[in-house]
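Q: Joint fold for the lines below.
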Amino acid sequence: MTLAAVADAALEQAREEAAEAVEAALDALLPETDGPEARLDEAMRYAALGGGKRLRAFLVMQSAALFAVSRTCAARVAAAVEMLHAYSLVHDDLPAMDNDDLRRGRPSTHKAFDEATAILAGDALQARAFEVLAEPDTHADPLARAELVQAFAAAAGPRGMVGGQMIDMLAEGRELGAPEVTRLQSMKTGRLIQFSAEAGAILGRAPPAQRQALFRFGRELGAAFQIADDLLDAEASTEQMGKTAGKDAAAGKATLVAILGPVRAREQATLLAGQAATHLEPFAERAHLLRALARFVVVRQA
Amino acid sequence: MTLAAVADAALEQAREEAAEAVEAALDALLPETDGPEARLDEAMRYAALGGGKRLRAFLVMQSAALFAVSRTCAARVAAAVEMLHAYSLVHDDLPAMDNDDLRRGRPSTHKAFDEATAILAGDALQARAFEVLAEPDTHADPLARAELVQAFAAAAGPRGMVGGQMIDMLAEGRELGAPEVTRLQSMKTGRLIQFSAEAGAILGRAPPAQRQALFRFGRELGAAFQIADDLLDAEASTEQMGKTAGKDAAAGKATLVAILGPVRAREQATLLAGQAATHLEPFAERAHLLRALARFVVVRQA
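A: Joint structure:
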């Protein structure tokens, strides 16, 4: 095997391990019940378990590993991040939003259940994510827990994920330039990816410079990831994606792929992924899997 | 004036002061903007500012006053509680939920804006509420902040407010008994009222027994408040209520008023309010306004 192939194999194994760890954490943190709350619990599990690339979970697990944080604590934070991501997909798929019937190769939550249940399952996943971060099991130091909650809320709220989704909705059918698209995507998907990269430093009580290095890594990785996602949306089939493909163009949504064309967009993604990796220098060889991830996000096929 | 009239006047003044304090805090914490996020910010302000009884804010301010917590810190927690309450009303009013066009005497948020904006404004209000609690300005001790977030999330999530709303939706048109109705209402509205009463003790780093006394006060006060609300819904006009009156009966929703009849329901509310007051004994005369509130909630006319 070449060195690159060895790195890719190590990355794939680490990604599988992170996916398994977060799946187990989600299963424990979102238990099945048989009382009157059973339907809500079932919808929350449907939305959060058993799917997705778990990119955000992987970032939490790997950034935490840089600081020798326990895997149990890291997996709780990874689960909170995936709960928040899952809730955002449930709400984005609603008829009043993107009206999408397919998600992760299955009916979206409002199709599998109903709209009211989907709205409430999303709301409950957000609350539960915050609860998990604040619980003492996540970190012995309450300052770490409060900092996790604060950074997570900033990534989730009106200046982060939800604000980005609002701007995205308002932009449908309008012409946006590259700077506006970059800004909206950095809010809509970038901020939570940044938080995921930063989370390990918060858990590890890392010096501010290291926390900031991971924050910047997450910023450029997130931007590269988003362009690659838009390239896949434009090029791949619905079957490969597990969600409706080509829907950005159909909805008149502005993407960098539409603005720059696929060739320049791919160049831009590669450039950003390279810049992302430069922020990992303080961690030297310990960050080899995060470096491999930065290479991977721009060449992935699904 | 009689002693009761003096107490009522003091209560009214304290309620106005709490309403003003939380309004100012909400205005500062949810600023107006003129960038691309303007519409989301406007919808969040529309939902959270300028209305409501501010019962929850009053409970936070008064429980905090028992422990000499700064009014600035208490007002931030009160604002977070009112943000969460406002988001729950925005989502409950959506067409897929209770489909209600009127709230606080004005068009509900999805009528004043649109459904997508209402969903996102609710989502953003929830995230912002958690952010406010976790920020250092809320309390110098990170343990207090983490405890606030944890208790707040438990009140907001699948075993609290959202879980109660789900059970309420599922129960429409079905026969529920008094124990089931009591349980569902204790989740849907009771848990956040309990948190509001408990919040002062968390802010004041009060001994566990005092925190628990306020938690229990909140439990019975919340139950009494809910029965009084259902009595008003059955008896008052839409104009008096500022929201659609008589909608519980129209939707086939189970309430204790429907099960027990108005006379026994009112007796039950009075009994609960009296029980609530007994939990205030550790605070002696310092809790006189909370005692006055317990009397007031069962006789209020709006």
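Q: Anything notable?
A: The first strand of chain A starts at residue 102 and ends at 103. Chain A touches chain B through 55 residues (CB under 8 Å).
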